[in-house]
Design a protein that fits this description.
single chain, 288 residues, alpha+beta, Jelly Rolls, Arc Repressor Mutant, subunit A, 2 domains, 6-stranded antiparallel β-sheet, two-stranded antiparallel sheet, 12 helices, 8 strands, disordered N terminus
Amino acid sequence: MPPGHNIFQQLVTKSDKFGLIVVYPQVFMIQLEPISGFFRRERALHAIYPMRMLIVCQGKGFLCMNSGDYPLLNGRIFFIPEEGLVRLDGEMSSGYWLSFSSLLYAEFLLQHLDPQAKNLFLNLSFRDLDPQKSSKTYNLLDQLKREIDHKRDMSYIAQYLSLFLGFTAGLDGYLAALTLDDLQQVLRFRAILEQFYKQERSIQFYAEGMGMSPGRLNKFLDRVLGKSLTVLIKDRIMREAEVLLLHSDYTIDQIAEILGFEQTTSFNTSFKRHKGMSVFQFSRLSIS
């Protein structure tokens, strides 16, 4: 399966056009649990998945790793590398223990190309959130917990987690100024866009999915994301085009059809306008 090509879809056996059927695996790839009580460093926290975060709502004591002991402070979020046991020594009045798979992290990296995102879990790091950001973080976690318990589609969970990581790591500066309701709306839009960007271009379609009028949706997107729906769809299509050109065996004609272009020439024109080079030139560069 090509990296980043809708990583929660497996391509198997046959289908009508390219000999492929898309199915969603039923494996859940995230663990989120409230955490509280007294802890001693002799006992490690259990994590199902390699990417780990500890969110301290109220606590005192230390997070203990091979690299040292780190104070548990209210509103502190730890980003914990894959290697090493995680131990607590102290009291957690309230907090969250989150772990998730490398596949979910890969979706976050596709949306955040800066080195800070890539290095987020390379070494142990933490951020201290102010009370306002802390409150938003806890509300987002409570909602994420409900989505996990209701076994929401994993592509939706991936979008939620990507937004949560971008917010808590400070990588998406625009999110910090948004209200909790705005954050939830951004999440909903991202999930709809991710599911339908290849087939749907109409603002009416996305407006109905968001429960808004087309005019209100465009104003909302311009306010919170600084782009129109047309630009957001085009950006997502071009990002997927680059992934398919780099990491799949599809022909250019097939990629154009997968991405909803009626003519390969239209695909090439859009790609050249976006990337500054033709599809063929980009493919040649990737080979070299």
